[in-house]
Model the fold of this input.
Amino acid sequence: MYDVVIVGAGPAGISAGLYAKRSGLNVLVLYHGQSNLEKASKIDNYYGFTNGIDGETLYKTGIAQAKNLGIDVIEEEVTGITKLDTHFVIEANNEYSANAVILSTGNKKLRPEINGIAEFEGKGISYCAICDGFFYRGKNVTVIGNSKFALNEAKVLKNIASKVTILTNGETLQETSEFEVIKEKIRAIHGNGTVDSVEFSDGSVISTSGIFIALGEAGSADFAKRLGIILNGDNIAVDKNMQTNIPGVFACGDATGGLLQVSKAVYEGTLAGLSAINYIKNK
Ligand SMILES: Cc1cc2nc3c(=O)[nH]c(=O)nc-3n(C[C@H](O)[C@H](O)[C@H](O)COP(=O)(O)OP(=O)(O)OC[C@H]3O[C@@H](n4cnc5c(N)ncnc54)[C@H](O)[C@@H]3O)c2cc1C
Done:
């Protein structure tokens, strides 16, 4: 059992980890997929680098610093977090238990470039199976994605919908699945007020009442919705100490919205780490 599991190894997650570890807590950082920091070719506005620094180097240096301090930093995709009475269970390749969780998975809402997606969001297009699956009881639904995250969403829907089909939109499904899979590229989503069908590039059409988008890894907002955490749009709502509305769950960095900058991620990571320390000490 870890004191704190941090999801995300960008400047927010690593900063939280440094403070938590240095206060004596047992800390695990899980990360998977690209950080926004890695995409930045040059950071010129962060303190302390005479000639700036490229994002990838800064990212890797942060991870090395955390490991050097004795923090467990493991590359595994987190696919779900469950709150039990006494602690949290974090689902990745392995399952981890923790007394507190810090969400620092950055800011992303991956929306595929498909005609009709924007038009039908909230009208048959959803980004969260556990939140909206209920509306599709006994209906045919589809999941767009090709990752473990997409399969997890399909599994949630299996118990609710009459049929679940995975649409990989031209990609290869990363794992074998019990679901029907259509690999053809998607040309458009159609409907009349709400979604009713998907058209593929070969001209074929299937009917569907609901489409769940599950691209890449689950992001902070996906975990947050499942845990019942309040969001501001796609961002996690936190108080001034980075505490969410669920005791023991903190969020920091791009995941909380606002200024999307390294300095803000470091500041919020610091606060989240300190808040997690207080929470564990009082528990
Ligand atoms: C092109 C570009 C240029 C930029 N330039 C600047 C600049 O000049 N100056 C500046 O201050 N800021 C800049 N930024 C912004 C800066 O990169 C971000 O504000 C900062 O990286 C946010 O840190 P973070 O820790 O919140 O998230 P990120 O750095 O995005 O880290 C997110 C972490 O979460 C992990 N993760 C995500 N999902 C999962 C999952 N399901 N399971 C496990 N791990 C997961 C990722 O692997 C990663 O480790 C730029 C961003 C971009 C995209």
Observations:
- The pocket of flavin-adenine dinucleotide is lined by residues 7-13, 30-33, 35-37, 39-40, 43, 45-46, 55, 77-78, 104-106, 217-219, 253-255, 260-263, 265 (CB under 6 Å).
